[in-house]
Amino acid sequence: MDFLRITIEGWVSSFRYPAFISGYQPTLPLPPLSTIYGLISAVKGEYVTPEDINVGFIFFHDGRGVDLETIYELTNKPSLSAKSNVVRREFLFNPKLYLYLDNLNYEHCFKNPEYPLLLGRSSDIMSISNIDKISMDKKNNVKLGKTILPMGVKGAHGTIQALATHFTNNIPREALGVKPFVLTNSFFNYNEDCFYDSEMDWGVWIHK
């Protein structure tokens, strides 16, 4: 089966835990699917959801750090004003994303993105280093990981977190497709059938 494999790199990324509203802001070890679909929407310039395209990804980074960030809290009661608040935010250094799409028609979108590519917050700007057309078949006994997986995948281990697959396109935005995922921050041997990238020698879980 034919896929696009897009390699995306940047300096820093941060993926907020849904339950952390204020105080110390840790980062998820991997981007949620909602972030992936947000990036694809920015590239295409249109709202893209899991109904439009199936995706998979492998994600790497070179380490974690913590920085201080000033947040301005706005209020309009009784008049417009802003209060500053300094928080500690965790980030991932030198993120690298291998994004797999099952629709080759998106190639021209990534060659000419409509909007800047962001992976995380509005300051986490990314760039595209490679766009490849590849063929992947299913294979068993492959290394799988560095991605998020549905609950129940045999052998998967990592952080379990309820995450949205995407958000609505209206304001206020609402989370859709919320379900538990396993955030696998390392590779493990997967004995069942999975799409296999022979060039990279790893399995790719395609979310449908």
Walkthrough of the structure:
By secondary structure, the protein is mainly beta. 8% of the residues lie in helices and 47% in strands. It contains two helices and 15 strands. It has helices at 33-44, 107-111; strands at residues 2-10, 12-13, 55-60, 64-75, 81-93, 96-101, 126-135, 137-139, 142-150, 159-163, 166-167, 175-176, 179-190, 194-197, 202-204. A hairpin with a 5-residue loop joins strand 4 (64-75) and strand 5 (81-93). The longest helix has 12 residues, at 33-44. The model has no long low-confidence stretch (mean pLDDT 93).
Quick take:
This protein is mainly beta and 208 residues long. Helices cover 8% and strands 47% of the residues.
Rg on CA atoms, Å: 18 Å
Determine the number of helices (DSSP H or I, runs of at least 4 residues): 2
Major beta-sheet overview: 4 strands, antiparallel
The mean pLDDT is 93
Which spans have pLDDT < 50 for at least 5 consecutive residues?
none
Q: What is the distance, rounded to the nearest whole angstrom, between the alpha carbons of the first and last residues?
A: 15 Å
> If strands are numbered along the chain, what order do they take across the biggest sheet?
3-6-1-7
- Taken in chain order, the helices and strands follow as EEHEEEEHEEEEEEEEE
Number of strands: 15
Helix percent reads under 10%
Map the helices and strands.
Blueprint: E1 2-10, E2 12-13, H1 33-44, E3 55-60, E4 64-75, E5 81-93, E6 96-101, H2 107-111, E7 126-135, E8 137-139, E9 142-150, E10 159-163, E11 166-167, E12 175-176, E13 179-190, E14 194-197, E15 202-204
Antiparallel strand pairs: 1-6, 1-7, 2-5, 3-6, 4-5, 8-14, 9-13, 10-13, 11-12, 14-15
